[in-house]
Amino acid sequence: MFKVEDLKFKYPNNKEDVIRGINFEIKEGEIFGFLGPSGAGKSTTQKILIKILEDFRGKISYNGIDITEYGNEFYEEIGVSFEMPIHFSKMTCMENINFFLQLYKNNADCEALLKRVGLWEDRDKMVGEFSKGMKIRLNIVRALLNEPKMLFLDEPTNGLDPTNAMILKDMIKEFRKDGGTVFITSHIMSDIDQLCDRVAFIVEGQIKEIDTPRNLKIRYGNRTLKLEYKEDGKSVLKEFPMDDIGKNDEFLTLLQTKEVETIHSGETTLEDIFIKVTGVSLKDESE
Amino acid sequence: MNLNRLWVLVKGELSRLNKYNVTSISILIAIMWSIILFFVDEVALASLLPLILMLDATLMSVMYIGSVMFFEKSESTISTMLVTPSTSSELVLSKVLANTIHNIFSSALIIIAFFFIKHVEFNWFLIFLGIFAATAFHTIAGLYLAYFQKNFTGMLVNIMILAFVLLIPTALYEIGILTADFWKYLLLINPIQAAAEVIGGAFTGYVFTYVYYISLGYMIIGGLLVYRLLVLPKFHDYAIKQSGV
User: Fold this and answer.
1) Fewer beta carbons under 10 A from the terminal one: N or C of chain B?
2) Extents of the domains making up chain B
């Protein structure tokens, strides 16, 4: 759906490129994630893809056509949610929605959307009176108003409580299930892990790795198995290599003779893999 | 340009002018001017009424569009407008039209009040043409000025400077302190003087010379040129800057 080739970008006041020759493809119907610390170039890449930043080098095509050839009809097909919730604060939730609805050819069922995010009861309240969480939920409704084919979400769950974050993640999955494509930027590892079909690690404007979270875990994870069992009234922990585990006599004997408390495969988290691949912590870098 | 979408944007701008109390303030100012003018004699009214309508169409227009731009800046709403199918020209033109309609409405309150209460006579077509041309020009100019303002206070200070530089020579010329021919020609380039001419032309007793036609052309053609050559090309950069980039 989107193909990005050798993308480079420099802000007018910067000496160096903030995006340094990245290549990736977003396939139709997938959730593609950009994982990286603050200042890595995630939001800049999103702003380039949604045609807000124009003076980039390299090539970006959307459905096979160079995005520079698209006019504003491009926005009929995409929905965007910025990191900071943006609304007219002295207008009600419904007034905000109705205003934006009129700008698009396709109109989603906004009652269903507002009910889904739990804002229907508050539709006549001024947005200025909304909590940050409510504004973020309204942000996603705003992004879905035109029944887009593709969603761009910048740090979508940042500032949401776990319950609302789960509702939002479910909505993103439902959008994908209905055929939509999603591009997510986030520094929150769990969002990427739970949502994305494929993930790109981005650091200092360069992509260090792209793959499915599962493949990354297999490739970079510890292929070990941890067994915790009771012996003489105490808990004992033993670690075994995953390879040929079925032929490991010590492991099989322990299973048969001891009271097993827990068994865990040695899966590494995406965050650990991120650090391993990039040498940078997701929390260390700042803008 | 999609006219349906432009109309939606204009209605949105007018609605926000109301929600953010800009409309209430302009009505209040119109009532205040009307009360002041109600107590002056006919001779003073004849010179003060065009002057107040000119102030409303010029400096107040710059002030109103500036405040609209600052409300948008404070809420970063321009970013979300950039990712709608609306084009830059639709977004800019909607602001110009909404502000012009809004200002014509407040000027109309003053005009109608004095037509019925003090039986002031004027040419209805020329008064609305003059107010429309002057307001649209100054709204466009105000939009361009707003691109360079960092905060609301700074904008107010710059409007005061603008008023001092442009309004004082006009006032001194009108009351006969500046009499040399040199001023007559120099003031042709002053947009506030041009606004005074196109609005003054609607009142009984105004003598039509080439100055009126040059002033009207200045407001219309000048407004179009500033819109096309300065305001529109810079809007996208301004909007991106407001989006936090």
Assistant:
1) N
2) 3-242
